[in-house]
Amino acid sequence: MDRLNRELAVAGQLLSSNVDYLSLPEKVLQFGEGNFLRGFVDWMIHELNKNQVFNGRIVAVQPTPHGKVVPKLNAQDGLYTVALRGIQNGEVVDTREVVSSISRGINPYADWGKVLDAAADPNIEVVVSNTTESGLKYMQENFYADQSPVSFPAKLTACMFHRFQVCNGNPSMGWFIIPCELVEDNGDVLRDLVLAIAEDWKLPGRFKEWVVDHNFFCNTLVDRIVTGFPRNNPETFQEELGYEDELLTAGEPYHLFVLDGNDGIQEKLPFHKVGLHVHWGDVTPFRELKVKILNGAHTLICPAGFLSGKETVQEVMSDPNFEAFVKKGMYEEILPVLQFADGTKNEFAASVLDRFRNPFNPHHLLDISLNSIAKFKTRLLPTLVQYVEKFADIPAAIAYSLASLIYFYKSVRAEDGQFTGNCIQGEYLIRDNKEVQQFFYDTWNDSENMIVLVDKVLSNETLWDMDLLAIPGLKEAVLSHLEHIANGGIDIAAVL
């Protein structure tokens, strides 16, 4: 079977419409070439090109020394297939499309000069990144003009300084910079990192002024589940496509991109004009919607669903009682305390239920359980507090989720730094930081009864940043649920 590349795509007419995608100029410098960017921003730019409202392609820079994507990208002439599969507005979506928005990939550790050449190109006006949350961190390192720095913020600083030198500080040569890392105020964070590194490297004050005055760092929020290469059934995909594609990228049809961009970037990247789910403006409200509804509902069902014997979110949603539990938590407890128009809240909640029912992208509950205490604190605890303040009552589904979470963290064994729980599915690893796991291990083993255990857990301000015993009625609700779970297992119908 032939491998996807320019020759195959042209001969097989795999590129939609009559646009000559493969000759479009490079307009975007992108740090990162992983599944998410290829299935999200790069797919969006392909949509712009199909509608002839951007007409540019992307130079993708490998973010780490051990990356493996760039050779595959270049072997396929930047082409790859995006498979979007899921439920949207109650209907099944299952599409395939060859995306042509990437022109080439560069390994900066081998070809730093090529990265600098791209950085100096006046046609390149946009910078995109996704180097994971750990990528937006400060790392002290030396500046060498002829070799790539290690960290992404340092790479960006070096590229900006080179562009500044080549253009002699021309204000019109500033960039629109769009970080997609899941960090709050990611644009502001990245700008401050660039300035800190410029200070470390003793770069001219005029350069720092140019960074601040003539470059626009967007704060963003991204939302799409991109699972990447379908490891379970790649042969089926290849046979269906009729060609080999090592960069086949699968994801869900749902997508949301929120950018606090100004008029200039909206004009450069008019995503909203081609029917994409993009919002321009303050990111904060959309972050709250995502964290409270989507992430909150994930956390709501995770421990109870897993302890009941289910492995995925889809299995949870196929159980009528659990589906009713999710809806109760969302529509009766989370949405009533969110300060949004009913239409906005309900539309987002409906899209979340569609995503949870997606039969193509299994969300494993054990994966979602990673660092669940911190997730509960940020995703559900504020809702619980607001609900009590507004209704003077305990939200039943959230309280049950908290009780099941406490039981999920009951270790039956602690060996070599790993803490193991046990449920009807058998043993499982509890994945959290060592201090959290040790606290629950000690508390479950040292408490003479369930009342003492609940007191210790709810009063631990290190876990919750507050004393949960101060919330009227919470201790009693959690204690009652926890005793029933310990004695009879998960009975989700009890809170419906």
How is the biggest beta sheet arranged? 6 strands, parallel
Strand content: 15-25%
User: In total, how many domains does the architecture comprise?
Assistant: 2
The CATH class name of the largest domain reads Alpha Beta
Q: Any idea what the shape is?
A: globular
Radius of gyration: 25 Å
The CATH topology assignment of the largest domain is: Rossmann fold
Oligomeric organization of the protein chains: single chain
Supply the CATH architecture of the largest domain.
3-Layer(aba) Sandwich
Strand segment count: 16
Task: Tell me the name of the CATH homologous superfamily of the largest domain.
Answer: NAD(P)-binding Rossmann-like Domain
How confident is the prediction overall: mean pLDDT? 94
Low confidence ranges: none
* Widest β-sheet, arrangement of strands: 5-2-1-6-7-8
Description:
By secondary structure, the protein is of the alpha/beta class. It has 2 domains: 275 residues, 3-Layer(aba) Sandwich (Rossmann fold); 212 residues, Orthogonal Bundle (N-(1-d-carboxylethyl)-l-norvaline Dehydrogenase, domain 2). It contains 22 helices and 16 strands. Strands 5-2-1-6-7-8 form a 6-stranded parallel sheet. Strands 4-3-11-10 form a 4-stranded mixed sheet. The protein is globular. It catalyses: D-mannitol 1-phosphate + NAD(+) = beta-D-fructose 6-phosphate + NADH + H(+). This is Tagaturonate reductase.
